[in-house]
Write a structure and sequence with these properties.
Strand content of chain A: over 45%
Radius of gyration of chain A: 21 Å
Number of domains of chain A: 1
Number of helices of chain A: 2
CATH topology of chain A: Double-stranded beta-helix
Order of helices and strands of chain A: EEEEEEEEEEHEEEEEEEEEEEEEEHEEEE
Helix content of chain A: under 10%
CATH superfamily of chain A: Mitochondrial biogenesis AIM24
CATH superfamily of chain B: Mitochondrial biogenesis AIM24
Oligomer: heterodimer
Radius of gyration of chain B: 19 Å
CATH class of chain A: Alpha Beta
Largest interface: A-B, 41 and 38 residues
CATH class of chain B: Alpha Beta
Strand order of the largest sheet of chain A: 3-4-21-26-23-14-19-16
Strand content of chain B: over 45%
Distance between the termini of chain A: 52 Å
CATH architecture of chain A: 4-Layer Sandwich
């Protein structure tokens, strides 16, 4: 099996181990693609071993997986403090403040990260059932990750965040309310110090697909896990006319509104199957980021 | 002695005559022993409908996401449990209340009365969360401490008591709770069944060996393992620092942790 290329992350390897050394995906399972084109990411095999620089990690457990790192001397990683499960006593922890603390606090994001430096072992887990996705990043490669999905990244990966162009404002009388279906902020990870590794947590199962240039797909905003920077996104509203008694009873809101996130290629997108429902108040929209709409 | 008499269960140490699963704890014997490179052993993923014997009764573990423990109690065999973990039972199974060592546990949200069910008949238990069932057969003379609310059931040959986790740091900052349930066997073996949120891992600590664990992740430990809540100072350059608290566990003895350490009501 020389010259094996992982169909999920693209990492080349000899293929003689049970799992991909880049993302932990099993090498002996057939790639499952739905009829609609989504690739079902196989959960990392239990005790799958992933190499990142001189350090390595094992993904243990299948229900609420644990990322068990063996850090080489002077190599490190960063994460939010609540992900820590256990550590050896020689692993050094240091706190790092994030820029824009006030904005991050408003968005419910951690304002500090913990840096762990080797040598030693440290393990992290997210407090929810689901899958752990390892995303190997090549030098210069970047991905954009929905907030609260990020688990841990190696220190060769730069962390930044931005306000995604996905929000709208509703008005009820004098009261205006801004809604962020994708969250207020979005994380961007770039491998700037050489190849790096990023781990994200998916609630439920994870699926990816590669969008061709100009190809688009509509997904629920909170189902998005991550996307390539090249993938454009904007809001899309669909309206369905209510008829008869229902229309009379709901006068003033006689259109049923469906809110989508439109993703347009080229690039890779990933989604999770368990997603938090975004409550749409169905009030009139008075302002929004660029959006398309369709009436049925 | 037949060909399989030397199969020793890696989880509970029982010698088995069955080629497939341990008769004492239900662990599959025909799958690889799962130990991480860092030394944590995964709790054996019990096969659906695994059957385990204790006293003259049997215990079957059903389901995998939110597993159910179903007991077929023999005449006179008894188990005790917290009442809210009971899923169903036959009409004929009698129940009684067993007082613990005083009502002070109620102040901290723990039941001061536990419920006992006596055979003959069938009764089933489940905890209301996804996770793993951990079957711990206790040999005579063992003492195991379990995090509060993690215990699912125990056979009546096991003595139930509790110990307070000492230290102001634990009271103010620990995530271990105020008490640990202590299960002790004297002359006879017994069966203790726990529920761990997410996946469960265990390891043996050598005498004096220590490890830092997220306080809410500690599931069980031998009574010989000491537990202290310890502050880790986090420096952040010229602007000073802050701190976080971990549970410092020091051997000798066995410890178990769970990977989901805080019960989620659901979703994000």
């Amino acid at each position: 099996m020389a010259g094996y290329s992982c169909p999920f992350c693209g990492t080349a390897s000899a293929g003689d181990s049970a799992s991909c050394p880049g993302c932990g995906a099993p090498v002996d399972v057939q790639r499952k693609v739905t009829a609609s084109g989504w690739i079902e990411l196989p959960p990392a095999a239990d005790l799958a071993r992933i190499q990142c620089g001189r350090s390595s990690l094992q993904i243990a457990g299948t229900l609420v997986p644990v990322a068990d790192f063996a850090l080489a001397p002077s190599e490190g990683l960063y994460f939010a403090h609540h992900e820590l499960l256990w550590k050896e006593r020689q692993v050094q922890l240091q706190r790092t403040g994030m820029r824009g603390a006030w904005k991050r606090m408003l968005a419910g994001l951690p304002v500090h990260m913990l840096n762990a430096t080797g040598p030693g072992r440290i393990a992290l887990s997210r407090d929810a059932p689901g899958e752990m996705l390892a995303i190997p990043l090549h030098q210069g490669h970047a991905v954009e990750v929905r907030e609260h999905v990020f688990m841990v990244a190696t220190s060769s990966v730069t962390y930044d965040y931005f306000m995604p162009p996905v929000w709208y404002v509703t008005q009820n009388g004098d009261e205006r309310e801004t809604h962020f279906p994708l969250g207020m902020l979005m994380d961007r990870f770039t491998a700037t110090g050489g190849p790096g590794l990023l781990l994200v947590h998916a609630h439920g199962n994870a699926f990816v697909r590669n969008l061709a240039a100009g190809e688009s797909v509509l997904i629920k905003a909170s189902a998005l896990l991550y996307k390539d920077v090249s993938v454009a996104m904007h809001l899309h509203f669909e309206y369905v006319q209510r008829k008869g008694l229902v229309s009379w009873l709901t006068a003033g809101w006689n259109l049923q509104r469906y809110l989508w996130l439109r993703l347009t290629g080229p690039g890779r997108v990933a989604m999770q199957s368990a997603w938090g429902h975004h409550h749409d108040p169905e009030r009139g929209i008075v302002q929004s980021t660029p959006a398309t709409e369709h009436y049925w | 002695m037949d060909a399989y008499s030397r199969i020793v269960c890696q989880w509970c140490g029982n010698q088995n005559t069955s080629p497939t699963q341990c008769s004492s704890c239900g662990a599959p014997l025909d799958v690889k022993d799962m130990v991480t490179e860092s030394g944590w052993r995964e709790a054996p993923r019990l096969r659906d409908l695994t059957e385990i014997r204790f006293d003259n009764s049997t215990c079957q573990v059903e389901g995998e996401l939110v597993p159910v423990v179903e007991l077929s109690l023999a005449q006179g065999d008894e188990v005790y449990f917290e009442h809210h973990v009971m899923l169903w039972k036959q009409d004929s199974v009698p129940m009684r209340l067993v007082p613990t060592q005083g009502p002070k546990r109620s102040i901290f949200g723990l039941p001061h009365l536990i419920t006992a069910a006596t055979g003959p008949g069938r009764i089933a238990f489940s905890r209301d969360a996804s996770g793993e069932i951990v079957v711990l057969p206790l040999h005579p003379g063992m003492e195991v401490d379990v995090r509060e609310h993690a215990f699912l059931l125990a056979s009546s040959r096991i003595t139930y008591s509790y110990v307070r986790i000492k230290g102001l740091a634990n009271l103010l900052h620990g995530g271990n709770g105020m008490w640990l349930d202590r299960f002790v066997t004297t002359n006879a073996p017994g069966l203790l069944v726990l529920h761990g949120y997410g996946n469960v891992f265990e390891r043996m600590l050598a005498p004096g060996e220590s490890i830092d664990v997220e306080p809410g992740a500690m599931l069980f430990k031998d009574a010989s393992v000491t537990l202290e809540t310890e502050k880790i100072q986090l420096s952040s350059g010229i602007f000073g620092g802050s701190s976080m608290y971990v549970a410092k566990l020091t051997g000798p003895g066995r410890i178990g942790i769970q990977s989901m350490y805080h019960h989620h009501a659901g979703g994000e």
